[in-house]
Amino acid sequence: MNDLAATRDSLSSPYAQMPYASYDEGRDGLPVLERTFAAVLGHRNWVLGIIAGCLILGLLATFLATPQYTSTARIEILPDAPVATSIQGERDRAPVNEAAFYNTQYSLLQSRSLAERVVRAGNLTADQAFNTAFKLTSPEAGMTSQQRRNISKRAAEILLQHLQISPVRSSSLVDVSFATPSPQLSAKLADLWVTQFVQASIDRRFAATSDARKYLEARLTTLRQNLEVSERALINYATNKGIVTISSETDANGQTKTRTLVGSDIEAVSKALAEARQLRIAAEAELANTQTGAAQVNAPAVGAMRQKRAEAAAELARMRTIFGDDYPGIVSLRAQVDNLDRSIAAETARSTQGNREAYNAAVKRERDLEAELDRLTVDYNAQQRESIQMAILQRDVDSNRQLYDGLLQRYKEIGAAGVGTNNIAVVDRAKIADKPSSPSLGLNLMLALLAGGALAAGLILILEKIDSSVRDPQEVIGRFGLPLLGAIPEVLDQTVAEALLDKKSAIYEAYFSLMTNLTFLTEHGAPRSIMLTSSRPKEGKSNSALGVATVLAAKGKSVILVDADIRNPSLNRYLDLSNKSGLSHYLSGNDDLNSMIVELPKYGLSIITAGQLPPNAAELLGSERLPMLIKSLLASYDHVLIDSPPLLGLADAPLIARHVEGVLFTIEANATKSRAIATALTRLRMAGAKLFGAIVTKVGARNQVYGYGYGYGYGYSYGDGSKT
């Protein structure tokens, strides 16, 4: 009420002159869920019809469809790298990517080549059950090869259409399923498919092995020739250079180390020279020694003679103490000692000469060996210079031998791998189904329900986008710049004129609330002269005019209602009044106004009907007689209410609006388009009319979500279209 109290100060404000707003602007305040519920409720007949139609179609599709029997075979696919033909220094072996591997296997399971293989393996084009199930023509003797190929191609396409590949999550298992009208045929096709897939995999492995063996054989031939050429070049070079190889060894890296004759001789001479040098040093140390070396042979004899001399000398000394020098015994002993001295000296000289001869021999041997070593060293140095090229040739031989040996080993491995186990195995064979897998009544009904819901949602969305009518009465404020003065409920079980006679009815309460709002529009209360109009016919403006007049009269005011819709009068029909004399007669020049006023005791008001239809209605309404009539009536009545024609297509309402205090604009909820309302309001504003506000009529169940249900539990309406 506080807002309406300020309305009289804002009717000429910019707010009252707001342009036509966007379609959704007035509905943004309503939550999405409530807007959705309102849309579904408003189009419930469409929603129910579409869903019911889809369910019926689902039932028909279920009962008319041919039963399908599904059989499933399960296989295991283990990741396995393709046959490798690489060796070190050749092609690199790429790691197997499991995701790519399995995607490849799934694609191979659904490949056309596998389908054609199954057709050939099972001779399906001649299978009567297969041809009957899929309506194929069996090959005949008179058919051309092209026609037979076309039949086989069509059979392969049918297999692919009815094939279903289902990987088992988090495993290496894959289910292969076929659905056909025959349970036996479904099981046969599933078994054929997995069997041929396994066989095709084996064939590919053997084909890969064969290709690898062919490749390796060609490479082995080339490497063997290269090895022979390099070995031949090495031997020829060694022969030409006089390099004699005694032995050769191959280390862990495959490098060959050779031992030549010159190198072996140098080792032997060096060893002999070292020994000779040691002997020479030992002989040199024994030159003056009569006990070692060559003198060692005569040492026992010299020792014995020295022992005898010592004994003889001792005896000689003893006898000299007794006898004189001329004593025969002494002379004999002295002669014996002299002989022994001469013998010892001779033997000692002979021993020293042996050591000298041994030393000389050792020196000579040492010098001979040194000379030989020098000669061999010269030869070895020359051979070393020549062995550089020989080492290069040896490396070529080693490289070629390594490549040949490695490739030969790979060739043997491939031969063993070609007869290895396959990485694809059949886990479960297909079983003959004992009941159809499709059609499923529950599933079809669920799909039909979902499809119906989706179609209904799409239709509601389209209808909502197309529908620009007023559903929430509060929208008139934001969309058209009009204050909302009242929302009038829809009446279904009686006419509005009858419902207004019951002051306990919801529609009477609504118009009473409207009248209360009118009292805040001007400083003197409710406006004295009011025109009610709408954008198009049958929006409830005549009923609203009667309702406002009735509640004003109930407050003790003298009220007169003028039916200015002289082109299509309606109040006389609603109230069952004569229309022989009325507004058109007065505007035409008849001054007997009292004869035109009809009292309505039940409603407590007076009325002037429209009168007979004139040929020039716009000219009559635009004449000076209309303002004279309004002035005359205001002199006798507290309020004058004029039920004017609708705005669209007619000039009548703008002509009348200039002579009244203000206009009440009637809008039918859920019906009138926003563009029509905006156009009508624009015409009124251009004519200088003062718009008091809007009355939204026929607010029904569709509008309850917006808070306009009045809480009475009744369903009111303006009646059928003929009484609107």
Automatic annotation (TrEMBL):
It is a multi-pass membrane protein. The keyword Cell membrane applies. InterPro entries: AAA_dom, Bact_polysacc_biosynth/exp, GNVR, LPS_length_determ_N, P-loop_NTPase, Wzc-like_C. GO terms for cellular component: plasma membrane. It is an enzyme of class 2 (transferase). It comes from Sphingopyxis flava. Signal peptide: none annotated. It is found in: Cell inner membrane. The keyword Zinc-finger does not apply. Gene3D superfamilies: P-loop containing nucleotide triphosphate hydrolases. NCBIfam families: eps_fam. Belongs to the etk/wzc family. Belongs to the CpsD/CapB family. The chain crosses the membrane at residues 46-65. Residues 540-651 form the AAA domain. Residues 37-120 form the Polysaccharide chain length determinant N-terminal domain. It catalyses: L-tyrosyl-[protein] + ATP = O-phospho-L-tyrosyl-[protein] + ADP + H(+). This is non-specific protein-tyrosine kinase. One of its GO terms (molecular function) is non-membrane spanning protein tyrosine kinase activity. Residues 359-386 form a coiled coil. Keywords: ATP-binding, Cell inner membrane, Cell membrane, Coiled coil, Kinase, Membrane, Nucleotide-binding, Transferase, Transmembrane, Transmembrane helix, Tyrosine-protein kinase. Residues 392-462 form the Tyrosine-protein kinase G-rich domain. Its EC number is 2.7.10.2.
